[in-house]
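Good morning,

Both structures are done.
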Amino acid sequence: MKKLVYLVFLTAWLFSGCAKKAGTTSAITSSHKSGKEGPRRGEILFLGHNSKHHDSGKYAPWLAITLFKSGLNLTYTTNLKDLNPENLSKYDALVIYANYDTLATDQEKALQGFVEGGKGLIPLHCATGCFKNSPWYLNTIGGQFKSHGNGAFTAAIVNKKHPVTQGLTEFSTTDETYVHQNLNKDKTVLMERVEGSTREPYTWVRHQGKGRVFYTAYGHDDSTWTKPGFQKLVSNGVLWAVGDKVQKQIAQFNAPQVDIYASSNIAISDYTKRHLVPKMQEALTPEQSLKLTQVPVDFEVQLFAAEPDITNPIAMSWDERGRLWIVESVDYPNTFLETDGAANDRIKICEDTNNDGKADKFTVFADKLNIPTSMVFANGG
């Protein structure tokens, strides 16, 4: 089965639409596979489920936005069969936010090898109620869900020196008030929910073999998932869990920061709302754009064409000869009546004639167009 690669347009750069397995080289590439040496983005697998109770399908994209700014790619799955050695080897850490009762023996073995071999495990909220048949899993995450009420509270930070709590402030939310059982004493508690004389561990970390485990009981629904403090907590936890080596690689990767909204102050759910654009995003180089492009972990993207050979590409399609056809919109977003009175847009063919993977021949197929938005091949092209 072929894998689909979604390419991101950032400024006026185009990248090859022919997906290639990682491992080849070129002047400018984007390949972030786990285990790769040198600067790269981290790779996180998020295990969710097909249920609106603990809506992982809704919250995983929210978390992906936050993690991406920290240099981490997130891939979402609801398939327990993805817990196998071959697939897990592509990732630096696994997030679990789901309700599954049992863990198959081969999946437990794969997960154990993954964590104890040095990768991260991030069980969130309901993950302490998962896999009741696996003593190894329950011991590894550090505790098991017992019961809960519901209410407004603020968990207290009890360890302010740990990397996970750096830059974190306590936040109030309405959430399920988890009570745990079978707590593993071999853990470091970072936050507690205080209720009367009870101090319930609510966020903790621990080590399992060579791997790191981060857990928080926060996260039942929108009330918590929309809190910037919760997103910061989980982002810190994931970044800690991937380990020192991957953290260093992410820092060396030096991905550009292009957020023009100061979104650390915007609830993650508010991205669907309209906001006043404070400024235009500054143009990026091809190298910078590649750092903001996510593809499947075992594929890479290579540069195919860039300015000045192309201008303002807004649509593209590949023909049967391997040529890239693009719509260049010089006029966008204005009609010709609002500019110089001429139609300046065009369709251009970008062709690689020497098979080096980069376009070296550029032919204008149609010009004097105004705001063309798409194209389709018909009648033999």
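Second structure follows.
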Amino acid sequence: MSELRQVEVESASSAAPLPTGHRGVLTCQRPQTNPAIRLLCFAHSGGNPRMFQPWIDQLAPAVELWWVTLPGRGPRWREPHATRWEPLVADITEAVVAHVPRPLALFGHSLGALLAFDVALRLTEADLPPEHLFVSARAHPRRQFALELPADDTDLLRLVDEVYRGVPEAILNSPELAEHFAPTLRADLMLGADYRYRGARTLSVPITALGGVDDPMTPTEELAAWQDCTTATARWRQFPGGHFYLDESEAGVLRTIRRGLAAPMGKE
């Protein structure tokens, strides 16, 4: 068995085992005993959802951490990458409804913030709204960030690094690593370009918008604009760093998450 505990393996905190169509979509590596809430996390374009693994110890035991794996990576590496928005979000939502116990909150970084937002909308439409939505390193969803993607993988990686400052040097300097990483990154960028904002759809749960002070993609006015996406309270906060500020501001981010999650439980 993999060191990762996929939700098709039954546990005290999970629902029914995942059917074939949902295998690998959701991971709860360390189920908690009677957690107060679950936090479902979505990574950025090209990102590995295991980036959230260090959060497990820091949020447990009150918060049980889950993450979403997109097609084409991790336990889903045999599946073709997703480039169409609607079918992917529908599939993720279906898996969440079937297998993640309530109460539930969502956290997403960059592309993951859009995915978390749209999944939150679909859960709300199914009368299963999350308790809180955390959106990180993403402007208001009406802002479309569609890069003109070069055909050459090396050029693609350098373009993304120029815009977001987040492609590791090891990948930029290694043709072998670039060949492995670029298809996933390209597919995720195409996926983001396929997203369409529907302004009439609004949440009724609190939103916390987070960003880096040096990230030109998320100025304060864009973080504050997330208030338009909910009828509940929306807050925003910036941390030291750029688009990938989570690396250097993890402690502050986790404090903000804990406070946000405590509110619906009457502990703020």
